[in-house]
Amino acid sequence: MIDILGIGNAIVDVVARADDAFLSKHDMHKGGMMLIDAAQASALYDAMPPGVESSGGSAGNTCVVAAAMGAKVAYIGKVADDQLGAVFRHDSVAAGVSFTTAPLVGGAPTARCLILVTPDGQRTMNTFLGACVTLDESDIDPDLVASAAVIYMEGYLFDPPAAQAAFYKAAALAHAAGRQVALSLSDAFCVNRHRAAFRDLVKGHVDILFANETEITALYETNTWGEAAEAVRKDVGLAVLTRSEAGSVIFSEAETVLVEAAPCVVVDTTGAGDAYAAGFLAGLTAGKSLADCGRLGSLAAAEIIGHYGARPESDLRGMMAGVG
C-alpha cells in the first residue's frame, strides 16, 4: 500500500530574491503565476539574481513533505531525458518518493519555474512547462493508482487536453479500487482558464478539494469566501480551504473544523499550500482526526514559510508524532 500518489507537473524550481522594482520592470503581478515560453525563460533566467535550484512542482513538493512526515509516497510526472530530468528524479527518490514515470525522449526539455521572492515573503512564479505537459493517459499506471489510499492531483497540470484525460483516467481507476481522489486548485489563473472543466471534475470525480480563498471564489464566481464555501460543500465530501494568516476551514458532511494558522516568521511563501496539503493528507492516511489533519497542515506550511524554498529543513516526523 502507498499512502499518497501525487500526479503533477515535474518542474525544477529556481528561487531568487528580488524587489518590487524588478517585478515591475519585467511586468509581473506579485503573488501570481505566469506561463512563459522557452525564450522568455532564458531571458528571465539571465536577468534574475543568483538563485537556489531544486526539484519542485506543486504535487512534487507535496509528495516530498509528506514523505518527510513518514507517509509512503509515489509520484507520476513527466521529465525529459536530460540533465534537469535526472536531477529531478534523483532528488525525488533521495527524499523517499517513488518516481518511475518514463522520461520524454527527443522532445521538449524538463520544465522549470523561475520564482522571485520579494522582501514581504510573497512569491511570483514564471513557469516554462516544457516536457511536463506531455504527460498523458499512458503514464497513469493502473496498479500504482490502485495501490494508493489517496490520489492527489495538482490543478497546474490541468491545462493540456492529454493531461485532463490522464486526470479522469486516474480518478476512475482510483474510485474503481475504492480509493479517494484529492485535487488542489493550485492557482486562480488555472481556474479562470478552465472553470467549467474544473467544476465538472470537482463535482463528479473529486472526494477531497484543497483551495485558498482566491481559488475557491474563482471556481464558483462569487464575491465572498462564504458564498464559495457554501457552494463547495454541495460538490465534495471534504473541502479544505486555506486562508493564509486566518488559518483554514475544513468542511465535511458531518462537521466544520476551524484551524488556526501556526505561528511563524514569513520568509518565503513558496510551497506553503503544497506543504499544508502534505500535512493534511499524511495525517488523514494515518487515521488522525480532521482537526489534527488541519493542525499538521498548518505546522507543515509554517515550517516551509520559515525559510527559502519549498522543501522541508526540520524534523517533520517528530512533528507528525507530536499531533494527535
CATH top level? Alpha Beta
Q: Count of helical segments?
A: 13
Strand content: 15-25%
Order of helices and strands: EEHEHEHEHEEEHEHEHHEHHEEEHHH
Number of strands: 14
**Which regions contain 5 or more consecutive residues with pLDDT less than 50?**
none
What is the average of the pLDDT values?
A: 93
Number of domains: 1
CATH architecture: 3-Layer(aba) Sandwich
Strand order of the largest sheet: 6-5-1-9-10-11-12-13-14
CATH fold annotation: UDP-N-acetylmuramoyl-L-alanine:D-glutamate ligase
Helix content: 40-55%
Reported for the largest beta sheet, the result is: 9 strands, mixed
* Computed CA radius of gyration, to the nearest angstrom: 18 Å
Question: What structural class is derived from the secondary structure elements?
Answer: alpha/beta
Description:
The chain is α/β, with parallel strands linked by helices and 324 residues long. The chain has one domain (2-321): UDP-N-acetylmuramoyl-L-alanine:D-glutamate ligase, CATH 3.40.1190. It is 40% helix and 22% strand. The protein has 13 helices and 14 strands. The strands form two sheets. Strands 6-5-1-9-10-11-12-13-14 form a nine-stranded mixed β-sheet, sandwiched between helices. A five-stranded mixed β-sheet has the order 3-8-7-2-4. Helix 3 crosses helix 11. It is globular, with a radius of gyration of 18 Å. The model has no long low-confidence stretch (mean pLDDT 93).
Blueprint (SSEs and pairs):
Layout: E1 2-7, E2 11-17, H1 20-25, E3 33-35, H2 38-47, E4 52-56, H3 58-68, E5 73-76, H4 83-94, E6 97-99, E7 111-117, E8 123-128, H5 142-146, E9 148-154, H6 161-176, E10 180-184, H7 188-193, H8 195-205, E11 208-212, H9 213-220, H10 225-233, E12 238-242, E13 248-252, E14 256-259, H11 272-285, H12 290-305, H13 316-321
Parallel strand pairs: 1-5, 1-9, 2-7, 3-8, 5-6, 9-10, 10-11, 11-12
Antiparallel strand pairs: 2-4, 7-8, 12-13, 13-14
